[in-house]
Amino acid sequence: MESILVLTHADESGSALTKASLEAITAGLELAARLGAPLAIGIVAADATHLSNGLPSARLLAVSGEAFAEPRYATDAAACEALCRASAATIVLAPGSSRFARVAAGVAHRLSGMIDTHITSIGGTATIEATRWFYRQRVEAVLTRDARPWLLLLDSGTHAPFAGAPGTAAAEEIKVDLPAIRTTVTGIRAPKQDEQTIRPDAKMLFVTGAGWTKKQQDGQTHVSEAAELILGFLRQTGASLGSSKSLVDQGGEGNSVLPFLTHLNQVGQTGATPRHPKGLATCCHGEEPHVVGWRFIADRRAISLDPNCGWTRGKADVVYVADAFPVIAKVNELLAKGS
Ligand SMILES: Cc1cc2nc3c(=O)[nH]c(=O)nc-3n(C[C@H](O)[C@H](O)[C@H](O)COP(=O)(O)OP(=O)(O)OC[C@H]3O[C@@H](n4cnc5c(N)ncnc54)[C@H](O)[C@@H]3O)c2cc1C
Predict the structure, then answer these.
(1) How remote is the CA of residue 123 from the centroid of ligand 1, in Å?
(2) Residue 193: pLDDT above 70?
(3) Multiple choice CATH, 204-337, 3.30.70.20, 3.40.50.80, 3.40.50.1220, 3.30.300.20
(4) What pTM was estimated for this model as a whole?
């Protein structure tokens, strides 16, 4: 009989579990219900007292203390190992966050178990079938394993965050034997929120294509105006910024380019495959190597001057054949008015 552990951790504020952790809890509840297996939830945080409130009926285990306030390999690996051993789980689900992705393989090794990453769904009743994508999201594989414990790191956005009825169990505190700690976290250096344009939790993906930097109807390029329009839209909507390869490549060609775009923004066959409920492509032709990165975007729209662009040929739900400059300017104006 399987037993399931969901590993979770606090967000940067320390006062709540991350959204990806709550998604892993949903996956754990579904799997436990399907297998009729016991479920435990493990929490890693500086102070887990309030974090266990609102969690579903399950055995709750917590590793807490100042040493677990910040992500660090030695402490996080020791915490996850202690939670896995205390629960004696055969299946361990965890969010594929940078914090857990860093330690999960090491934890699996310490437990003589196995690990698979980028899991998008878990099915099966007699056996456990974990699904993930290969070859830039073109081939979907279903994995089964006999080895236990089996750790599965879940991709974010693949399950709804847990929001069900809370249970009443208090968390059991699990003691961790910490190794000598060589790494001291002195602070976090990160770009300001409005400089950080890749926002995996955003409701919308806003994609910019090379058209923003091309000569427009007046025979001139308008790159600084394009930058203002794009950043204005992002500021007001909180959308995540994606780009076609052609546009991000322009930086390397010494051409005039939008300075806030890097290859990390690139969506497509050789870029990212983000998950958002909605996507809006602007000044982008919608060629297949780009569009393949959109396979997990639910509602796709595009603004292009070209009525024969790839988006129009069945790839977008709605195509606005229009000049993106005045369209986005008008949208920004309406957003500023709050309408
Ligand atoms: C092996 C391989 C892998 C690749 N991987 C990727 C990938 O991962 N991601 C990716 O994006 N590409 C990838 N490509 C490149 C891809 O095939 C396309 O060349 C690229 O996506 C096209 O980018 P674009 O639409 O921005 O530019 P363009 O093809 O230049 O299109 C610009 C569009 O903007 C429109 N436009 C111009 N001005 C305006 C305006 N004012 N208003 C509205 N529309 C306007 C034009 O009508 C045109 O449709 C790959 C190619 C290969 C061969």
Answers:
(1) 37
(2) no
(3) 3.40.50.1220
(4) 0.78
